[in-house]
Amino acid sequence: MRTNRSTPPPCAGTPPANWPEETGIGTDPAGLALWRVVRNDVGSVGALFLAPPLPASRVRERFDALVSAEAAAGREPELDRIALVRSPAGLAELRGPRVGYLEPVLGQPWSG
Q: pTM here?
């Protein structure tokens, strides 16, 4: 991810149509580019897409608004936090579970 700009998180196994309900960020499918296909440790396959870049502040703003709206409606959001990382080194600060392919994916160039 670039300084002051980020790409909505690549979501493996999650159709782009679900991104708004998970992240608060909607993206026109025509603007997506298939970037990588990954396999997790149990053999499931997922597709990672690149979306048009957005300012990091906008990503956080939309996600925070979604979490607030879910809480106000008495629902628990699918995701309760978001992190924008630029490289595998940025993962050291994250807590909680993560998918096994995340570190190798972050080490790849971010281009279509």
A: 0.69
